[in-house]
User: Which sequence fits this backbone?
């Protein structure tokens, strides 16, 4: 699909894809690939930090440090950290799927109809897999 290898493209600082450029041209793919890769890297680091925090809090809790209130607070912290970890893991999966779509040339196109999702939508929501209309219809059907 792309004539240039988007991974090797060096984009100008503050580059933002424009409607005047061909949809999902190599520069668009490079932009979204770099954006999602950076988000993935940060999220993966944060995910590791959360899991380390859970391990530390769990060790403290198992050591019997503090009174009942301290123990309850530690349990709440562990539960919250585990929820955050689960959310991070789910988001990492979505980012990986988007990066895979970039690699295979389907990024930017609806997984339902194959239509263009639209540049504006992707700039706001880079993980989008449906057009606005398809997403709205899906949400209406859930109600």
Assistant:
């Amino acid at each position: 699909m792309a004539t240039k290898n988007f991974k090797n493209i060096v984009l100008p600082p503050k580059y933002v894809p424009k409607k005047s450029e061909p949809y999902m041209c190599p520069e668009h793919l490079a932009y979204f690939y770099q954006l999602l890769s950076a988000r993935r890297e940060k999220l993966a680091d944060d995910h590791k930090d959360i899991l380390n925090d859970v391990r530390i809090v769990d060790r403290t809790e198992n050591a019997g440090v503090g009174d009942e209130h301290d123990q309850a607070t530690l349990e709440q912290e562990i539960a919250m950290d585990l929820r955050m970890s689960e959310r991070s893991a789910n988001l990492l999966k979505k980012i990986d799927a988007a990066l895979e779509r970039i690699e295979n040339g389907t990024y930017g196109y609806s997984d339902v109809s194959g239509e263009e999702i639209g540049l504006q939508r992707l700039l706001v929501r880079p993980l989008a897999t449906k057009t606005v209309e398809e997403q709205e219809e899906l949400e209406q059907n859930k109600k």
Summary: The longest helix spans residues 26-62. The chain has a mean pLDDT of 86.
